[in-house]
Write a structure and sequence with these properties.
heterodimer, A: 230 residues, mainly alpha, Helix Hairpins, rod-shaped, B: 124 residues, alpha+beta, six-stranded mixed beta sheet, five-stranded antiparallel beta sheet, 1 helix, 16% helix, elongated
C-alpha cells in the first residue's frame, strides 16, 4: 500500500496527538496512584486505630471481671457481718445487722451497675468488630485499586514508549520532510474547508459572482490534483 | 410471731430461710470433691475438710452450718440476705412473702439416708 504525503503527514499529526493524550493520561494515572497510596495509608492508620480500640475494650471487660469478683467477696463479707450481728443479739447486734444489710444493698447495686457496663462494653465490642471487618474489606479494595492503577501506569508507560519508537522510526524514514508534510496537510485541510464554504456561498448566489467562480474553480482543481495524487 | 435472725436463700425449690443460729459462715465456693455413690461431697474450708451437701448447681457460695456439732456446708444456694424477720413454726415473713424454713438436719439426713440406702441395697 502506498501512502501519500498527506496521509503520512496526517499519521504524524495523529501520532503527536496520541503522544500528547498518553502523556496527559500518564500524569492523571500517576496522580490517581499517588491518591490511592495516600488513601491506603490513611485506611491502614484507621484500621490500626480501630484494632487498638477493640483490644482496649477487651482489656476493660477483663478488668470488669476482677471488679465483679471483688464486689462478690465484699457482699459475702457483709453477709457474714450480718450473721455475727445476729449472734450478738440485741441491741448491738441489731445495729451491726442493719449496717451490714445497708452495705450489702450498696454492693448489690454496684454489681448491677457493673453488669450494665459490661453489657455495654460487649455491645460496643461487637459493633467495633463489625466496623473492623468493613474496614478490612475497604482496605483490601483500596489496595487492589492501587495495584490496578500501578499496572495501568505501567501499561501507559509501555504504550508511550511504543508510540515514541513509532514516531522516531517514522521521522528517521522521512528525514527532513515531516515538517513540510505537516504544513502541507494543514494547508490542505484549510483549502478543503475554504472550498466548501465558497461552494455553499455560490449556491446561495446562483446568478454567480464572477469573483466567487474565480476562487472556487482553482481551488477545486487543486483539490482534484490532491485526490489524484492519493 | 417473733423476730428472729435468719439467712434468706434461694435454692432449687425456691426461696427459703435458714435460722441464723444454725448458720456459721457464708463462704465463697471452693472446689468440691465428689464422693462416689454419695450425694455428699468434700471441700477444704479454712484449712478443714468439711462435708458438703449439694442441693443444686453451683451458685458461687457455700453456707457453712453446724450439724450435731460438726461443720457441714451446703452448696447450690443463692445467699440473698441476712436480717431480722417475723418467724413462727410455719415459716417467715420476708418482704411480704411467706418463706418456708430450710431445715438443714432434714437435708443432711436425706443425704445420709440415700447413702445408707445404697449401702443396704448393695449388701443385700
Amino acid at each position: 500500500m502506498n501512502l501519500s504525503d498527506v496521509d503520512i503527514a496526517e499519521l504524524l499529526r495523529q501520532l503527536e496527538l496520541g503522544e500528547q493524550s498518553r502523556s496527559r493520561a500518564d500524569r492523571a494515572s500517576q496522580a490517581a496512584t499517588a491518591d490511592a497510596s495516600r488513601a491506603q495509608a490513611v485506611i491502614e492508620a484507621v484500621h490500626d486505630g480501630a484494632r487498638g480500640l477493640v483490644n482496649r475494650n477487651r482489656e476493660l471487660r477483663g478488668t470488669a471481671g476482677a471488679v465483679r469478683d471483688s464486689l462478690e467477696r465484699a457482699r459475702l463479707a457483709a453477709l457474714n457481718a450480718g450473721l455475727e450481728g445476729a449472734r450478738l443479739g440485741e441491741p448491738v447486734g441489731k445495729a451491726v445487722l442493719v449496717m451490714a444489710e445497708d452495705i450489702r444493698v450498696l454492693l448489690t447495686r454496684a454489681t448491677d451497675a457493673l453488669e450494665e457496663h459490661v453489657s455495654l462494653f460487649s455491645e460496643l465490642e461487637r459493633e467495633r468488630e463489625r466496623w473492623l471487618d468493613e474496614l478490612s474489606q475497604t482496605r483490601e479494595l483500596v489496595a487492589a485499586a492501587a495495584q490496578r492503577l500501578r499496572e495501568l501506569g505501567g501499561l501507559e508507560s509501555a504504550s508511550g514508549q511504543a508510540l515514541a519508537r513509532l514516531h522516531a522510526n517514522l521521522l528517521r524514514h522521512l528525514g527532513d520532510e515531516p515538517e513540510k508534510l505537516r504544513l502541507f496537510a494543514e494547508a490542505s485541510a484549510q483549502v478543503q474547508a475554504l472550498s466548501e464554504s465558497l461552494v455553499r456561498l455560490r449556491s446561495l448566489n446562483p446568478e454567480g459572482d464572477a469573483s466567487l467562480s474565480a476562487l472556487v474553480e482553482p481551488l477545486a482543481a487543486l483539490l482534484e490534483r490532491k485526490d489524484k495524487s492519493t | 410471731m417473733a423476730l428472729a435472725a435468719a439467712v434468706v436463700v434461694r435454692g432449687p425449690s425456691g426461696r427459703a430461710f435458714v435460722r441464723a443460729d444454725s448458720a456459721r459462715q457464708i463462704l465463697a465456693a471452693s472446689p468440691i470433691s465428689r464422693v462416689p455413690n454419695s450425694r455428699l461431697g468434700m471441700a477444704l474450708v479454712a484449712g478443714r475438710v468439711v462435708s458438703v451437701v449439694e442441693l443444686g448447681a453451683a451458685s458461687g457460695a457455700l453456707l457453712l452450718c453446724d450439724f450435731a456439732g460438726e461443720p457441714v456446708a451446703f452448696s447450690g444456694l443463692d445467699i440473698e440476705r441476712v436480717g431480722l424477720f417475723e418467724t413462727d413454726a410455719h415459716g417467715a415473713n420476708v418482704d411480704g412473702e411467706r418463706l418456708p424454713e430450710l431445715v438443714l438436719g432434714d437435708l443432711v439426713t436425706a443425704a445420709l439416708g440415700a447413702e445408707m440406702g445404697a449401702t443396704v441395697d448393695e449388701s443385700e
